[in-house]
Amino acid sequence: GLFVGTNAERLAEYKRFAETGKYFGIESHVLSPSEVKDVHPLLRVDDIYGGVYSPGDGTIDPTSICNAYAKASRRFGGGVYENVGVSGIEVEDYLTAGSAPARRIKAVLTACGKRIETPTVVNACGAWANEIAALVGVQIPLKAMKHAMVLTEPIAGMHSGLPNVRDHDLSVYLKTQGDSMAIGGYEQNPEFWPDVDPGFSFGLFELDYDTFGQNLAGHMQRCPVIEETGIKSTVCGPESFTPDHKPLMGPHPGVRGFYHACGFNSMGMMLGGGVGRELTKWILTGSPEVDLFSFDCARFHPESVSDSRWVRDRTHESYAKTYAIVFPHDESLAGRGSRKSALYDELLSRGCVYQARHGFERPGWFVPSSGSQEALSYDFYGAYEEGAWRLGEADHPDIPRHESHEYLDLVEGELTFDWPRSHATVAEECRAAREGVAIFDQSYFGKFYLNGPEADQAVQYLCGADMEGKRIGSVTYTPLCNSRGGVEADLTVTKLQNPKGDNYYYFAAGGNTATKDLAWIRKVLEDQNFDAHIEDHSESMTLISVQGPHSRRLLQSLTDSDMSDASLPFSGAKHLEIAGHPLLVLRLTFVGELGFELHTPAESAVAVYRAVHDAGAKLSELDGIPVRDAGYRAIDSLSAEKNLRHWHADLSNRDTPLEADGSKEGH
Q1: pTM of whole model > 0.90?
Q2: Which pLDDT belongs to residue 666?
Q3: What domains lie within the chain, and their CATH numbers?
Q4: Which of 42, 346, 511, 658 is the most buried if burial means most Cβ atoms within 10 Å?
């Protein structure tokens, strides 16, 4: 295909695409405007910077490929039954060996009165996937929209040898259809379809030219001959979209045997074959053989999934930004503020610029501000200043765009492949961690307690590290591995003991993977019939991390408990009090310096944080030691500098601990 870019940043992105393509053996060429014209003579090129061309790209006939899949299925003993509706799905409630409540698939009921007993159901129903999920009693983050394309009359000069064209800056595509073009795109004001009709499976909507007109203007700009070309036919049908424009795959957390393969965001033909192959492995072995966390339905937090407005707003934003440049430090404006740390307001008042990850507001970096750097309510980038009925509510009032938005201004300063506007600020946060003390709020981490008569045996089986014989108060960084030895999760496990003398374990998992990690642990506990269970305490606890060469000195000034190496060695833990509040302190580092994590009940978090902050201010005043709040932008830089691994960014279920050099991984 041929991509054309109308600005320097877009062309820089295309050059990155071309370099990535070389790694995978895909031929591609970065073109000047005149070379773009040579490849596709019908395009206007006087307003572009250049393009990238991949001559080996092709197209797929959807009817033929569906027939091929059906033929292959029958050859291997499968069956395809058309015009048979699903009227119900039987789900059984039961208790695991650890007395944890659980649910599993039992059977499918059809509209013709048949009952098909099965332990496995795959929800591959596209825009109708919510209906199937509801039969199981769960929700998924998926919205149906009306998505359209137009087939033009024949155009002089068009032929099947011309490439498909995408102009990402105009958010449109122009596909070759013999001597015609199939044109479409991703408008900023898409129309949602809230009341999905079960009987609409092969139906089409009447095209709303007011909605499609935004795309049509882009088509005429890029290919002027379209303005004087007639329309042969229109196709406007239902399509499923998700909050991050990626499919929903894998096991649904909490329902054993219920899998998803839906929400393809108009990429079903492209992704279908690989998804089918890997989902089969997922069902049979418990894990795919490639890294599919970006598609895993467990990448979304349950609270986000259950919030219909969050799903709608994030889905709109991902749709509208389908063709936006993917900058390293872009941030979402939709769905903000749904999950917050107990320190949210405190840090906001100190200049925190938040990032949204896993539906949680985590600190990104800190700037002095005279206004409010908080993300405002989502205004859809002004797309529904007129015609907000397209959101799926007939009487929905129009939504004006914010006249001023300081958070958006800050984010736009980060939209570059060069050093972002915050670079110097983040550098100072890093310097504090290396030379003084940096205070991080990492409350978005997953925080779980594992209890039960067989807790010791369960932890030994779960963890890649040898947990047998660990002392009380020890903290172990460990991977959790699948049957092939691939790393499914990396986290820390602290061994503790209750007053009765029973051992229990505290897990701290990366925030972005917390839902997946919890589901994996529960699955293993059930598979192995351990008399143990794990409880999620993520929302009720706060994690304040104090890192840097002077961190011990700062914390020792706040407690009578001994913080020395002898009393609290690296990878050790102990209970103590700060500002009169009991908490659990873990001596760990994710930045390669002396450091401590304060795990405290959420109701104590502000008091503990203020005590730490005030002690840091005294340290700075007395000795000139840099002490400051810091965010995840600094963490990413500091951990990379020390070669610490991050799951999904640096290792995945495809990598074994030995391949990843597990001694250097970080959680």
Answers
A1: yes
A2: 39
A3: 62-142+244-305 (3.50.50.60), 344-376+401-444+538-630 (3.30.1360.120)
A4: 511
